[in-house]
Amino acid sequence: MRRDRRMTTIQLSPREVIRRSAERSGGGDAPAPHVLDPQVWLRILNIVRMQHPTLNRVWFDGMVPRQLTNGVIQVTVATPGQLNFCQGQCQQPFTAAAQSVTGRLLSVSFHCENLPRGGGVFGDADAQMPLNPDLTFDNFVTGPCNRLPHAASVAVAEQPGKAYNPLFIHGAVGLGKTHLLQAVSQRVLERDPTCRILYLSCDAFINQFINAVETGEMNQFRHRYRDADLLIIDDIHFLRGRERTQEEFFHTFNTLYQGHKQIILSADCPPGEIPELEERLVSRFNWGLVARIEKPCYETRVAILKKKGKLRGLDLADDVVCYVAGKVANNTRELEGAVTKLQGMAMLAEGRIDMDVARAALGETVAAEQRRVTIQNILDAVTKYYNVRLSDLQGKRRHKSIAFPRQVCMYLARRHTRFSLEEVGGYFGGRDHTTVLHAVRTITAKAAADPEIAQQLTRIEGQLAG
Question: Which fold has domain 14-112?
Answer without folding.
Answer: GMP Synthetase; Chain A, domain 3 (3.30.300)
